[in-house]
Amino acid sequence: MDSGSSGVIDPAGDSHPQFKRVLWYLIGSTKGGVNRAKILELINSHPANPNQISSELKLDYKTIIHHLSVLTENGLVTTDNKESYGATYFLTPLMEKNYNSFMEILATIGKK
Questions:
Q1: Which has fewest Cβ within 10 Å: 11, 32, 89, 97?
Q2: What residue ranges define each of the domains in the chain, with the CATH number in brackets?
Q3: SS3 15
Q4: What H or E segment, with its residue span, contains residue 75?
């Protein structure tokens, strides 16, 4: 991975070849993958804050915070103000550009 970043995004914001592997790892290969997939789908449909995500997905608030942290660290989601309680989360431009790859992974693992 690149120093100073997650290695998923280059300075121009283009996808690296490893992006799909990161998606596979985060969604298809880890215990929390199903919940992370649900969060990504919800945020794709409409940006939301952790409390809204928790309520809509009927998952514990702390669970949502954990998954949002993982997704943020890996360049899949971003927020308007991380320090704010009501910070709204959005898909990153990279994730938006590669959303079809995400959907292919969901179809392959049978979560969609």
A1: 11
A2: 19-109 (1.10.10.10)
A3: strand
A4: none
